[in-house]
Design a protein that fits this description.
4 helices, mainly alpha, two-stranded antiparallel sheet
Length: about 140
Amino acid sequence: MPGYQADNTEEKNMATRLISREPKDPQELYKEALENASAFNSRLRYERRLRIPFIDAQTGIAMNDCHLWISKLERRPGQTPHYIYSYPAKRWRKKKRPPPTERSSEVKAAEAEEQISENMDTMETEGVPPEESEADHTRKLSQ
């Protein structure tokens, strides 16, 4: 059973590698966990930014990008001995948007003129003089 012994030695090597690992300082473990969580959140934010805006199925609200996660660049050393990191305080403020305005009468008049000129152009291409209406033109064609 030489194959079995080879497998057994590989298992022993793996076990010795796991056992021989030196225990880390709890603060180092905490820092590593924070950095891993930060990297995960950054990756998640980036992926979500590519899919935004999306509509939440339960609420029907369109979700937008947010700045809940703070970048590593803003990270500072802790201000007291029991804090590892600290971040600058930022107050959240809702973006101010102007109230919706009704369309002015000038815009409506301009659109009406455009529509009239388009109708006139189509009538001219069909050979209808501008003085005649479409109803008069259809009556003449039907006779």
